[in-house]
Amino acid sequence: MMDTRALVLGGAALFVGLGVVSMLVLDRNETTGPPSSSDFATASEPIQFAPTQEQKEFQRMAVAADEIPECSAPRAPNRLSPKAYIRNSYAAILDILAMQRWQETGSCECYYGKFAWDDVVAAAPGFERTDGIKLRFDFLKLRAQADEMLAQRSKVCSD
């Protein structure tokens, strides 16, 4: 019986509190009544808000985007694999293939455009793991090899 009274009193207090809060929030000395024609006339105009001080500060903290080098690898498309590590491995293989072509020719030409993703997929078996681990590629090893080759090229060629 005591628990029921406490529950009813608590619910009533909550109901009254919500009513008071809603009155404070909703009552801003606005007159109630039917909307006037001027209310509808301004509704079709786009509303523009001035940025707050916090937004201005945030915009000042924004960092400009890095310049994209002229010769950069494209992202591997999702159609190649639903697994990100395989797509990333394909991207590393593309880097390796392009850098191998650079080493063969000695030209600082950008070779990424010379390879289609089908070429990368066809070359992929030569980069697969052979150490008995179930993952198809050793992504870290591929990425390290590609990064080393890219660093060598960047020493010789400047985009």
Topology:
Layout: H1 2-26, H2 37-43, H3 53-61, H4 84-105, H5 117-123, H6 139-156
Helix pairs in contact: 4-5, 4-6
Number of helices: 6
- By DSSP, the count of extended strands is 0
Contiguous low-pLDDT stretches (5 residues minimum) are none
Percent helix range: 55-70%
Distance between the termini: 83 Å
Q: What is the global morphology?
A: elongated
Mean pLDDT: 79
What order do the helices and strands follow? HHHHHH
* Main sheet properties: none
Beta-strand residue fraction? under 5%
Structural class: mainly alpha
- The whole-angstrom Rg is 32 Å
Question: How would you describe what is shown here?
Answer:
The chain has helices at 2-26, 37-43, 53-61, 84-105, 117-123, 139-156. It contains six helices and no strands. The chain has 159 residues and is an all-alpha fold.
Observed structural traits:
single chain, 0% strand, 159 residues, 6 helices, 55% helix, mainly alpha
Summarize the structure.
This protein has 159 residues and is mainly α. It has helices spanning 2-26, 37-43, 53-61, 84-105, 117-123, 139-156. It contains six helices and no strands.
